[in-house]
Design goal:
The complex is a heterodimer of chains A (488) and B (449). Chain A is an alpha+beta fold. Helix content of chain A is 40%, strand content 18%. In chain A, the strands form 3 sheets. In chain A, strands 2-3-4-10-5-9-8 form a 7-stranded mixed beta sheet, sandwiched between helices. The longest helix of chain A is centred in the middle third of the chain and has 19 residues, at 177-195. Chain A is globular, with a radius of gyration of 23 Å. Chain A starts with a helix and ends in an 18-residue tail after the last strand. Residues 1-51 and 476-488 of chain A have low confidence and may be disordered. Chain B contains 15 helices and 11 strands. Chain B starts with 32 loop residues before the first strand and ends with a strand. Chain B has helices spanning 74-81, 93-100, 125-137, 143-162, 165-177, 191-195, 199-209, 225-234, 289-301, 307-315, 348-364, 369-387, 390-402, 407-418, 422-431, and strands at 33-36, 42-47, 53-60, 104-109, 114-121, 215-221, 259-265, 272-279, 319-327, 334-342, 438-445. In chain B, strand 1 (33-36) and strand 2 form a beta hairpin. Chain B is an alpha+beta fold. The chains are: A alpha+beta (488), B alpha+beta (449).
């Protein structure tokens, strides 16, 4: 548990990386050799809605099909039935991410979400948690920028109780004073943890300088000051107006069939109001090129860098996704890893990703390196970007990217939890279920010219903005002989 | 929802009979198959036909405990070097080839073992087996790649340890706990010693430890045992066995007194109470003893219904988080830990007394039956949930075999958990969590000592 505690900054870019491997590694008390890349799937907008099941692949023993359920209030429900294991995995996304935080009450979306298992209906916190624990029901939440993502994993024998409890939690949350105080202390603790972690510090500084006071500019957890203004009544109001069925996106995988699932979903989500909240429009600000440094007495600096990105609905999205894979999304296959890590030994981890939030897109990356090589690492990133923007990828790089992206497709569907997670991502990206059928063909159809165009559009180093946490000069006194120590 | 998931019980079952209250669970006979190649490579296959993919894991019986004196970190460093190329797959072509074929790969090192894995479409299994067989014998170590990789590992250390006061404090606790046993040396190594690793040291480590007769192959996924055997015969079987020098065995010196250490640093914003006990591992324990420790950890601090959480976080409001975990899967000693994150203003000694009182209570009387049942339900269900993921499934078997347990130990784990009695839990609390077998650490903000 302590290991999870140590890595509790779960809203950082790091934590989006290969959660499965992380979980396994943390179980095994081990030291991973490399951090794997985020498993984000490329995709393209296709609004045709399939009525028939969509085949993901023909497995060794069976075909894996995604089916949809029609829902009375327009909720999207995608599911896969597989009876191999006696369990069900669910993700549900509600329009209750941090972008909905009102000005002055930053952190309220996350605060409310963290209270989801702290009592519902007649059950106070302890009773509710015992009800979950007695049945080994795993209920967890992730607050991202646009959505509150609820994950539920249960043994299928306990599914009725699991969905009932989730329904109670969503529709009749208690927000008791004692629980609110406890969770407030926990979030303040998370914020303090982030304050001592240069990656979190750099990321917050970057987003603040990029979005200023807009919906995406503040930390998901809020700040100590903003949390201070949030009371139980605020939380209650936020939940009542944002934990709603309009825009609700549900994905289910596992040991369940259609008629049972219909009942289960009714019990979990049937009582939610239909109203739809809005995200405030963004100002006209995308950050310009700048370098900021937040001083911290750490031996290794973290630089978070970014460029204007694109929305998921942009026609250039798929070429841009492939371009990003080649530049910085593809682990050892990426140019940044090859140049900064493999050739120069400057870092253990450098990567980029396309952030496609509902109202804004960003190219974001990060690199961690000892203080004395921070400038060198940033200069190297500039060089790699410049060449990539000017010349784009080679034919061979594009071919390799396509075989990776299409060939790794079934890996995203190899467990119930993976399937629920992956379907949830597609739903949140606004894709139709039929996308699953076409996805690999769409990737294969992208041309070199399209990727070059996207690279030129997105990866212009003149627009690069960088936030460093740590320092760009010599290290402070080494805490234990670790920092920049010269080889004996 | 700040509580972390339970971290106990890495092993899990492939056979479930039932799984707790109101949850009739169908028996799942996820059959496994075991065989060995002529060259001594052990093979274990877990068919799972849900998706047309496989996970291949190659576990070497070498880890940080095999680092030579003065060269801590060598086993982990060497794991990195395994991605630096061979004559036929030069440079970074290993990872590039896996990626080009739609695969994911990675590796990890512990004190006891080093494991490499790929997840890939099932028709590429022979390809990745060929790659792993090639680097088992034909690694191409150059001075320049060793130098660059050393810099990368030192950056990894800065990221995971040196930038993080909690990790630095844990490293000190571990070093104090295990006395001269190598479990007290960090897997990633002390920086001064990592700096001393050169090509010759890497080469001799490779020659000594990397051989088919020192490895275990685990394949989980959409395959049959015959397919795996044919692919393994075409790849790994070509690597000759080598005579192995036996691994060094280390004394676990008796601890004659408990240790307390306080780390005070100005970069600390969140204090931490951490106590780690040296406790029997699954390989050392009497039958049922390690399982009792797993149940005890769940009861003490496995989830928000646990005693530490209810008492310290909910009732007394001393801590914002508190928990316990047991790491029993080790060749030598296991570890049992309890921790708490003090709320602002809470005194460390008050927290420590509260924890001691709770531990004393567990050592003097059997827990309530309802609580024991809940803890067991959680642990057994964890086995089902982990079974969902091929990497976790393969890891359960690989880890067990790598530390000297058997596949049966994996299968029987849920039944053994169910058999744990209240008295056995009390016994474990009394006899296995002994003050002199522990190190208690305080991490505090303040001026660096």
């Amino acid at each position: 548990m302590i290991r999870d505690l140590l890595h509790s900054g779960r809203f950082t870019t790091k934590n989006t990386k290969d959660d499965c491997a992380r979980k396994v590694l943390s179980f095994l008390r081990v030291l991973g050799g490399r951090i794997t890349t985020p498993r984000r799937r490329a995709s393209a907008c296709n609004l045709f809605f399939a009525a028939l099941p969509v085949l993901i692949f023909q497995g060794g023993a069976q075909a894996l099909e995604v089916k949809t359920l029609s829902a009375p209030k327009g909720e999207e429900i995608w599911y896969v039935s597989d009876h191999t294991l006696p369990m069900i995995a669910v993700t549900a996304a509600l329009p209750a991410g941090s972008a909905y935080d009102p000005s002055g009450k930053y952190g309220i979306a996350n605060f409310a979400a963290e209270l989801l298992d702290e009592g519902a209906g007649a059950m106070k916190s302890g009773a509710f948690q015992t009800a979950l624990s007695n049945r080994a029901i795993r209920l967890s939440v992730t607050t991202d920028r646009d959505y509150l993502i609820v994950s539920l994993v249960t043994l299928s024998g306990n599914a009725k109780d699991a969905f009932d409890l989730l329904g109670q939690a969503l529709s009749h949350p208690r927000f008791d004073g004692d629980a609110v105080a406890r969770v407030r202390a926990q979030i303040l603790n998370t914020i303090s943890n982030q304050d001592q972690d240069p990656e979190d510090v750099a990321q917050k500084a970057f987003l603040r300088s990029w979005f200023h006071d807009d919906s995406y500019g503040h930390p998901i957890e809020g700040t100590a000051q903003s949390l201070d203004t949030i009371e139980a009544a605020d939380l209650k109001h936020f939940a009542a107006t944002h934990w709603v069925s309009r825009g609700l996106k549900i994905a289910v995988a596992g040991d369940v069939d259609e008629s049972r699932l219909t009942e289960l979903i009714k019990s979990a989500f049937g009582s939610l109001p239909a109203s739809a909240p809005r995200i405030a429009a963004l100002g006209n600000n995308p950050g310009g090129p700048k370098l900021s440094v937040t001083d911290m007495s750490v031996p290794q600096s973290v630089a978070v860098f970014g460029l204007p990105g694109i929305l998921r609905s942009d026609p250039d999205y798929l070429p841009a996704y492939i371009a990003n894979y080649i530049l910085g999304g593809g682990d050892f296959a990426s140019r940044l890893t090859s140049e900064l890590r493999v050739k120069r030994g400057l870092t253990y981890d450098v990567s980029t990703s396309l952030e496609t939030w509902r109202k804004s897109g960003l190219v974001m990356g990060d690199v961690a390196t000892k203080r004395s090589s921070t400038k060198q690492a940033i200069a190297a990133i500039h060089d790699v970007l410049r060449d990539f923007a000017q010349n784009g990828p080679t034919e061979a790089e594009l071919a390799d990217a396509k075989t990776y992206l299409t060939g790794s497709w079934p890996l995203a569907f190899s467990s119930n939890t993976d399937i629920a997670e992956q379907l949830g991502i597609f739903e949140r990206q606004g894709l139709a279920v039929d996308y699953i059928r076409n996805r690999n063909a769409l990737i294969n159809a992208v041309t070199l010219d399209q990727v070059r165009h996207a690279a030129k559009r997105l990866f212009n180093p003149a627009k690069l903005s960088v936030a460093v946490a740590g320092g760009v000069g010599k290290a402070p006194a080494a805490p234990n002989g670790a920092a920049d120590a010269a080889a004996p | 929802m700040k509580r972390a998931a339970t971290a106990s019980g890495v092993l899990f079952a492939a056979f479930f009979l039932f799984a707790g209250l109101g949850a009739p669970v169908r028996a799942q006979d996820a059959k496994i198959f075991q065989f060995a190649l002529q060259n001594g490579l052990s093979v274990l296959v877990v068919p799972d036909h849900r998706a047309p993919v496989v996970t291949q894991m190659l576990w070497y019986r070498v880890g940080a405990m095999d680092d030579p004196p003065g060269l801590s970190g060598l086993a982990h460093f060497f794991e990195h070097m395994m991605f630096r190329g061979t004559a036929s797959t030069p440079g970074d072509q290993f990872a590039r080839t896996v990626a080009r074929n739609g695969g994911e790969d990675n590796a990890f090192t512990t004190h006891d073992y080093t494991a490499f894995y790929e997840q890939i479409a099932k028709d590429r299994l022979r390809l990745v087996m060929g790659l792993d067989a090639d680097r088992m014998a034909n690694l191409d170590l150059s001075d320049s790649s060793v130098r660059t990789e050393r810099d990368i590992v030192l950056e990894e250390r800065r990221m995971r340890i040196d930038n993080d006061p909690q990790s630095l404090m844990r490293e000190q606790v571990e070093a104090a706990l295990h006395l001269s046993h190598p479990y007290g040396r960090p897997v990633i190594g002390w920086p001064e010693e990592v700096h001393r690793i050169g090509r010759l040291e890497a080469q001799s480590f490779y020659t000594r430890h990397y051989a088919p007769n020192n490895a275990i192959l685990v394949v989980a996924g959409d395959v049959t045992p015959d397919e795996v055997r044919m692919d393994a015969e075409a790849t790994y079987a070509k690597v000759p066995a080598r005579e192995l020098v036996p691994r060094a065995e280390y004394a676990q010196p008796p601890r004659l007194g408990d240790t307390k250490l306080t780390v005070t640093r100005d970069d600390v914003k969140v204090p931490l109470f951490l106590r780690v006990y040296r406790a029997p591992s699954y390989t050392e324990a009497k039958p049922g003893e390690a399982e009792s420790l797993d149940v005890l950890a769940q009861l003490l601090g496995g989830d928000p219904t646990s005693t530490l959480y209810r008492e310290l976080v909910v009732k007394r409001k001393l801590a914002s988080d508190a928990g316990a975990s047991y790491s029993g899967y080790a060749r030598d000693a296991g570890e049992f830990e309890v921790y708490a994150v003090p709320r602002p203003g809470a005194k460390m000694d008050v927290i420590e007394h509260a924890i001691d009182a709770i531990l004393k209570q567990y050592a003097s009387a059997a827990p309530r039956t309802g609580d024991i049942d809940r803890a067991k339900t959680q642990l057994v269900a964890d086995a089902v949930y982990r079974r969902d993921n091929l990497l976790e499934l393969a890891s359960a078997y690989g880890q067990a075999l790598a530390i000297g347990l058997t596949a049966d130990d994996v299968h029987e784990w849920p039944a053994r958990i169910r058999a744990v009695t209240g008295d056995a839990i009390r016994d474990a609390a009394e006899k296995d969590l002994i003050p002199r077998e522990s190190v208690t650490g305080y991490l505090l903000p303040g001026k660096k000592q």
